[in-house]
Design a protein that fits this description.
Blueprint (H helix, E strand, L loop, with lengths): L2 H13 L3 H6 L4 E2 L10 E2 L20 H5 L4 H24 L35 H16 L10 E5 L13 E2 L3 H8 L1 H8 L5 E4 L3 E2 L2 E2 L4 H9 L5 E3 L4 H7 L7 H11 L12 H6 L5 H17 L20 H14 L1 E5 L12 E5 L7 H4 L12 H8 L3 E5 L19 H9 L3 E7 L27 H11 L5 E6 L12 E4 L7 H9 L13 E2 L17 H4 L4 E3 L10 E9 L2 E8 L5 E11 L9 E10 L4 E7 L7 E2 L5 E2 L4 E7 L5 H7 L4 E6 L1
Parallel strand pairs: 3-5, 4-6, 5-8, 10-11, 10-12, 12-13, 13-14
Antiparallel strand pairs: 1-2, 6-7, 9-14, 15-16, 17-18, 18-21, 19-20, 19-24, 22-23, 24-25
C-alpha cells in the first residue's frame, strides 16, 4: 500500500474544504461536499460475526464462538467473507444513493477487550480472556477484513481502547483503576499487535475513564498509539464524548468536551458532540490545524478504501455473493468447530438406530435469538436446534418449550411453571432428551443507550435463570438420559449432573445443523473454551476491580469448573516428543481413538521469576485434523515476548533463565488433565 500517495490525496481533498466544512466531516454521518468530491458517508458499520444491522448477510457464530475454534486461518476466512459481503452491499446500496448507517466500508470490529469477568454482558463480542489468543485471532480478523491489496477491502477497527470490560450500567461514569503491570501484561498486548502486526486502520475508544482520563481523550493511551506508529483514524465510542461533561464531569460544556477529545487525537465522533467544534474554535479551545489534522486522517482512510478512485476491483463485487452457498457452507463449518463438549459419559454420539424417539425441550430449542448473539445481521435462512435435530433424525420427536427464557410462565394467562408438566411428559415418552437451555442477547449484552438496539447488560451471576433451573430439575427427575445444550456467550454453571453437556455459544445461522451433526456423530466436537468457567461468581473479585488478581486462568486461585482451553472430542489424542530449538516448539500428536477429529494443540510457558504471572501463559496453538490412527508433527514459533515478565512499573524484560514449556490438548494444570484424561508433555528451556 502506497501510504505517501494516500496521505497526499487526503491533504488535497481536505485542502479543498473550508475549516467549517472540514469540521462537518468529523462526525460519523459525514455530509456530501461537492467541491471536495465527497459523497455523503456514514462511518458507522459493524461486522463482528458477519455484516450487521443492514439486512441480510451470512451470519457466523458470535465472536466468543469464533474464539473457541482456536483457528487463525478460519477466523481470517470469516473476516474475508464478511468484508466481501460488506463491499457487495456497499456497491449495491451506493448505486441507489443509499448511504445510511451500517452500509459503509468502515467496520467497527473486532472487539479485542479482555473478557476478565464472566458477568460482563459484552464479553460475548470478544475473543476471550487471554491476551495472546485475542491478539492472534484479532490479527487474523483484521487481515481478513482489510485484505492485502493496493486498497483496503474494508477498514477494521480495534475496540474499545483499551481498558473496558464492564460493568455496563455504570460505564458512562466509571473510572477503571489499572496498575502499570496489568496494563502492559493484560490490557494492551492485543491492541499493540493489531496495530503493529495487522495494521488495523481504526481504533475506537471506550466510554469509561482509565486512571482518571476519559478513554477517548487519554494522554496515556494516545501516546501508546504513537509509540506503536498508528497511522489510521481514531473514533470515539458512540456518544462517549458527551459523557465528558454530563457524567464524568471532567469538562463543563460540550465545546470543552469536543476540544478535549479533538486535541487528544480523536478524529471522528460517533455521536453529536463535534457539532460544537466550531464553538470550541471560537472560544480558542482549539485551532484550525486541529480540525484540519483530524480531517486529513479521515480522508486518508477513505482514500485507502479507494473512494477517490474512478474504479477499483472491489467495485465489481456483485450483490449475488451475499449469503451465497459457499459462504453458508463456511458458516456451518465454523459452527461445528466452535461448539465445546464439556461432559460426556459415553452417551454421545447418539446411535440413530438404537433410539426411536427424542424429546427436544427448552426455551432455546426453537429460538433464532439463541443462534444470533448481538451485533448481528439477519440471515436469510436459520436452522434452530429443533430444526437441525428434526432434519437429522427419522424417528419421533416430542417438542416442548418447557419454560420461558426467564419469566415464570410461557403464557401470560397461564399459571406459574405452565410448561413444566409438558416437558416431563415429553421426556417420559422419549428414549433420550436434548435439553436446550441458556441465554440470548436480551439477557446478556450491551447496556441500552442512544443508538444501541438492545436493552440488556451484565449477568448477576453464573446460574441459569430460575425458570430454566426448575425445568432442568424436572427433566432430570424423569430418569431419562439427558443431553444439555447451553447457548450463551459466557460461562454458565448449570449446577446439575447430566449425561452430556455441550456449550454452543451463539452459533450462527446453522447452529441447529451443527449441533445435530455433533450429537449424531457426523463430526467430532473440537471447540475449546476461550474463557474460564468458574464454579460461582461469589468467589470472584468485585466486578469493578480491574486488578487481574484471581481473574482468568493465568491468575486464578481455584473456583474453576471447566478450565480455559478445555474441550472434549469423540476421540483420544496424545502429544509426545516435545522439543524446542531456535525459537520453535515442535510436538507430535497422535489420534489413538476411534473417530477422526480436529484437535487443538496448545503450548503454555511457565516462568518462575518474581514478576511473572503466577500460573502459566498460552504462547502458541494450532488446530489440526487427524484421521483415526494418524500422527502429525506440529510446530509453532514462540516469540521472545512470551518469555518476558512485566515489572510493577510496566516495563518488560526476560527475568528468568529457566522456563518450562508445555504442550498438549489442554492447559498443564491438574484439573484439565483429569477432565481430558490426557497429560501434557513438557521440556525445560534455558536462556
Amino acid at each position: 500500500m502506497d501510504r505517501d500517495k494516500f496521505q497526499q490525496i487526503a491533504e488535497e481533498v481536505t485542502g479543498r474544504m473550508t475549516t467549517e466544512e472540514q469540521a462537518e466531516q468529523l462526525k460519523y454521518d459525514a455530509p456530501a461536499n461537492e467541491k471536495a468530491g465527497l459523497k455523503a458517508y456514514n462511518w458507522w458499520n459493524e461486522g463482528l460475526h458477519g455484516v450487521a444491522r443492514a439486512g441480510s448477510a451470512t451470519m457466523f457464530p458470535q465472536a466468543i464462538g469464533l474464539a473457541a475454534t482456536f483457528d487463525e486461518e478460519l477466523i481470517r476466512e470469516v473476516a474475508d467473507i464478511t468484508s466481501t459481503e460488506a463491499r457487495a452491499k456497499y456497491n449495491a446500496y451506493s448505486s441507489h444513493e443509499d448511504r445510511d448507517i451500517y452500509k459503509g466500508l468502515t467496520l467497527w470490529s473486532p472487539n479485542i477487550n479482555i473478557f476478565r469477568d464472566p458477568r460482563w454482558g459484552r464479553g460475548q463480542e470478544t475473543y476471550g480472556e487471554d491476551p495472546f489468543l485475542s491478539a492472534k485471532l484479532g490479527t487474523a480478523f483484521v487481515k481478513g477484513l482489510q485484505g492485502e491489496g493496493e486498497f483496503l477491502k474494508t477498514a477494521a477497527c480495534a475496540k474499545h481502547f483499551a481498558v473496558h470490560s464492564g460493568p455496563e450500567n455504570i460505564r458512562h461514569e466509571f473510572d477503571a483503576k489499572v496498575s502499570a503491570k496489568d496494563m502492559e501484561e493484560t490490557y494492551l498486548p492485543a491492541f499493540r499487535e493489531l496495530i503493529e502486526d495487522a495494521g488495523a486502520e481504526g481504533v475506537m475508544g471506550a466510554y469509561n475513564r482509565v486512571n482518571g482520563e476519559p478513554s477517548c481523550a487519554s494522554t496515556f493511551l494516545m501516546n501508546k498509539l504513537k509509540e506503536w506508529n498508528f497511522d489510521g483514524y481514531f473514533v470515539s465510542d458512540c456518544w462517549a464524548i458527551r459523557d465528558f461533561h454530563t457524567t464524568h464531569k471532567v469538562t463543563k460544556t460540550a465545546p470543552e468536551s469536543a476540544a478535549m477529545a479533538l486535541k487528544a487525537g480523536c478524529d471522528l465522533n460517533c455521536g453529536n458532540t463535534y457539532l460544537h467544534i466550531l464553538a470550541a474554535l471560537e472560544e480558542g479551545l482549539i485551532d484550525e490545524e486541529d480540525i484540519r489534522k483530524a480531517c486529513v486522517h479521515l480522508m486518508r482512510t477513505r482514500a485507502r478504501l479507494g473512494m477517490f478512485e474512478e474504479h477499483t476491483d472491489f467495485d465489481d463485487i456483485p450483490f449475488d455473493v451475499v449469503s451465497c452457498d459457499e459462504h453458508k457452507k463456511k458458516s456451518l463449518e465454523v459452527s461445528e468447530k466452535s461448539m465445546v463438549l464439556l461432559k460426556n459419559n459415553g452417551i454421545l454420539p447418539l446411535d440413530k438406530n438404537s433410539i426411536k424417539s427424542i424429546a427436544v425441550i427448552g426455551p432455546n430449542a426453537d429460538s433464532r435469538e439463541a443462534l444470533e448473539g448481538n451485533y448481528n445481521g439477519r440471515a436469510d435462512e436459520y436452522v434452530t436446534f429443533l430444526d437441525g435435530i428434526r432434519k437429522s433424525f427419522d424417528g419421533r420427536i416430542h417438542y416442548s418449550e418447557g419454560s420461558a427464557l426467564f419469566k415464570d410462565r410461557v403464557m401470560n394467562l397461564g399459571m406459574a411453571d405452565d410448561r413444566l408438566s409438558e416437558a416431563a411428559i415429553a421426556a417420559e415418552n422419549s428414549d433420550v432428551v436434548i435439553l436446550c437451555l441458556g441465554l440470548n442477547a436480551t439477557l446478556e449484552g450491551e447496556e441500552g443507550d442512544t443508538g444501541n438496539e438492545f436493552c440488556s447488560g451484565d449477568k448477576p451471576d453464573l446460574r441459569l435463570p430460575e425458570s430454566q433451573r426448575k425445568l432442568l430439575k424436572t427433566v432430570l427427575a424423569t430418569g431419562k438420559p439427558v443431553i444439555v445444550a447451553v447457548a450463551a456467550g459466557s460461562a454458565i454453571n448449570i449446577e446439575e449432573d447430566c449425561d452430556a453437556l455441550i456449550h454452543t455459544w451463539y452459533p450462527g445461522q446453522f447452529g441447529g445443523t451443527a449441533l445435530a451433526n455433533i450429537i449424531f456423530g457426523e463430526v467430532s466436537p473440537s471447540g475449546k473454551l476461550p474463557v474460564t468457567f468458574y464454579e460461582t461468581a461469589d468467589n470472584l473479585p468485585d466486578f469493578t476491580d480491574y486488578s487481574m488478581k484471581n481473574r482468568t486462568y493465568r491468575y486464578a486461585e481455584g473456583n474453576i469448573l471447566y478450565p480455559f482451553g478445555y474441550g472434549l472430542t469423540y476421540s483420544k489424542t496424545v502429544c509426545s516428543d516435545l522439543s524446542f530449538a531456535d525459537g520453535k516448539a515442535t510436538v507430535t500428536i497422535e489420534n489413538k481413538g476411534g473417530y477422526e477429529t480436529d484437535e487443538v494443540v496448545q503450548f503454555y510457558i511457565k516462568d518462575t521469576s518474581e514478576d511473572a504471572v503466577p500460573n502459566h501463559s498460552l504462547c502458541g496453538f494450532r488446530r489440526v485434523h487427524l484421521a483415526k490412527g494418524e500422527k502429525k508433527t506440529v510446530s509453532v514459533n514462540i516469540s521472545r515476548r512470551s518469555f518476558e515478565a512485566v515489572h510493577e512499573d510496566g516495563s518488560r524484560e526476560i527475568c528468568g533463565s529457566e522456563f518450562t514449556l508445555y504442550a498438549g490438548i489442554s492447559q498443564p494444570d491438574e484439573l484439565s488433565c483429569k477432565l481430558t484424561g490426557t497429560d501434557t508433555v513438557s521440556v525445560q528451556i534455558k536462556l
